[in-house]
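HOLO CASE FILE
Compound: magnesium ion
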Amino acid sequence: MAKREKLFGTNGVRFIPGVTHTLEFVIELAEAIGTYFDKGTILVGHDGRVSSPAIYNALIAGLMSSGCDVLEAGLVPTPALQYSVRHLGVRGGVMVTASHNPPQYNGLKVIAKDGIEIDRVDEEKIEGIFYEQKQYKADWKEVGESRKETSVIENYLNGVLAKVNTEVIRRSEFKIVLDLGNGAQCVAAPYLIEELGCELITINSVVDGNFPGRGPEPVPEKLETLSLAVKSSGADLGVAYDGDGDRAIFCDEKGNILWGDESGCLISDFLLEKSPDGTIVTPVSSTQAIEIIAKRRGGNVIRTRVGSVDVSRKIMESNALFGFEENGGCIYPKHIAVRDGCIATALMLECLATRSTTLSRAISNYVPKFYRAKGKVEVKRDEVRKILDKIEEQAKGKIEKIDGLKIWLDEKKWVLIRPSGTEPIIRVFAEAMTKKEADRILSRYLSMIGRMT
Ligand code: MG
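Model generated. Tokens follow.
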């Protein structure tokens, strides 16, 4: 590879196998990752994508070639692999996944020994080994060994079950619809629900790398089947996971799809009620409702840049209680400080069981109502800075610059203008007291940016 391009994006390395990158690339990158880990034992796993088994085998070969021993977890959700890296006490992990990206994509996520994705500095170390330093290739008698590791799902589910009050959940005898989206949670989440004594209905429950059901990303417009299934079966709630099972989107008993802001706030409120001085960590893009909740309960909120790794690392640093993202990522560090769809599900059930209420009532009772709107504008990469400076110059009101530009238009409404890290676009988020107002703010800023390009 002649040209030096950045390998790691916001969530590990992503590529289109056979189009942008080859399996030879995977072997060489795996050798660089193995060199970075410097021998030791590495736990590897993969999601259900069509290209995942081939990439997984190339990954194993590359790690062994650099002298690492490999434990093969096979098809597992990403959080199960991350939990098991820490639980098994191995040196690190690598997950083959492209999370919620379209079927043709794939990627690698490198996990540190604490179970969290490696940080930016270590990503650069691996890139340095890949491009500049030579990857270590072990002598024939030092090539690593590999064996199957079959305990990963069981350990992971036991880990989740140990963090919630299973008694109170079992007594509630919930009826749950899981929309598994043909993704990696097909092999874990249904067993969790059964262990929790719930009646279970599943949709899109067969692992399929073409994601024929509703695609790998659980966005509200793709969850109509879930909504109908919950309503027609009289279920208490529904849950949809993304392709690798680290994000969970909930559906209330009336069939309303909740965005991650609402479910994240409800779980935060429930946990803060038990630990009033707790800290909640969330990116700058999530709802202001969390500050109201934290204040009411005596807790506090730390805002981060957008990206789950930033939330995870900040949670560890601040010894926080919980973290969430507006896209349905929930992080409970007592379990593990990474996003996990199963712990989100278990905490939600514990919250509803403890409060003996329905999901729709819990949301309206405990989560202040705000409305949001999201959009994006294509821009030339070299114009991004200029556009942000111009908007900042014209802005009236308080400005926060944690990630992009967040302008408070008054006490209850804000707009966030944030350049994407990977594509030539600027994303705009708006939040206000009414849907109409949020939409109005969004369209005003989208056209303002449009005029500047
Ligand atoms: Mg994911």
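CASE NOTES: Residues 435-452 form the longest helix (18 residues). Residues 99-100, 242, 244, 246-247 surround magnesium ion (CB under 6 Å).
CLOSED: yes
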